[in-house]
Design brief:
mainly alpha; CD2-Gal4; 2 domains; two-stranded antiparallel ribbon; 4 strands; nucleus; Zn2Cys6_DnaBD
Length: about 425
Amino acid sequence: MARDPVTRKRNIQCNSKVKTGCATCRTRKVKCDEDKPFCQKCVKTGRTCDGYESPFRIYTSQPINNLHAGCIKSGVALQPIRPTLKEITPPDVDLLSRYFSTKTMFDVKLGCDEEAKQVLQASLTDPSVRHAVLSLRALREDLETSGDVPASVTQQTPSHDYGLQQYCKAMGGLASNLSFPSPKGLKSALLCCQIFISIEQVRGNYAVMAQHIIRGLTIMHEYRARPDLVAVNELAPAHHNQLPFLDVFIIKLFAAPCKFSDPSATAGTSGTTASVYLISSQQQPVESRDLRTIAPDMRTELTRIAASTLEFLGKVSRVDSVGKAVQLLSEKAALLDSLESWLMDLELVQAEIRPPVPELISVSFMRLFHLILKIVLLGALDSSPDLYAQLQAEIDRLQSVANHVGERLKAYRTCSGTRSC
């Protein structure tokens, strides 16, 4: 017997492919409410929500599209594959901790030994993390070997090509693993994201570095790496207790002393020290007390706020009651006020500089760091409906500043041959 039109229409709708939503709802071919980290339709019906598609999928080709249309061609001469670690030794930890940031080329200490141990431990069993580590090592070694010679397609070395090949493999494996996120896959994602941030710093690609920062922080928030106030009188525990704290790593990365803005060894006549600045081809050194003092003075205060933010995040990780969480909200508000005051002071000093000059790249880096701290703080202990709109506005600003920094450094490298910051 022929079915009536309503029944036929319902069957067609049920059989249509669901392209969004969690993996469970897609398999069941039902509409998902797309709540994060788990959809309420699954939770309320007693099903296991298998999560959402990989947040890294959109980046699987972007970072290497300036070399080839796809992954590195197999015909390119590559360095021999480095042996896989069998055990973790202190020299391995020291080396990776140094490779996390190009600032360490100036004997800067990051204090990231624990992060390096965690990455190396994961690399023993996780292919994506292992490929990412191999990529960072190869690209960093190439940077240190090549010195200040700008990287270009015609000057690429086997080590450089090998590093990009491993980068491609790391992102490809990560995208596959995160198609259906699990606690293990999320940990892998955040560890890889940590290394990707370092890789893009080595490559001087700050626009893509910002994308990795944003995506990693989003994963931490959506999958509740720390306890969260989900309502006025309700504290939700951390959903995944073993997720790496990517935000802590990023803050350490940016808080480390920057040799382009810290005082040099040469003291001025007033007893203060002049600062070394990175200037673009359009800028000329200006003998102004404001320019000599703005970066060290402003950076000192920003670093102090960063240290307080790390202490605050440690307290959030250990919070176990609504009362303590509410007390921490006051501390959070005070830190956000400090960031706002810092930005106002920066704008005042910038406005007083005479004659007016383009903003120093070191100052643009501080703006980048300021926005990272603000985004991290805004997302702590907060899951309110208004949060996402507020975060998105700050994320857009962060991406804009990162794009600006990348363009300025590209112009500087073209002029002077400097590859790193």
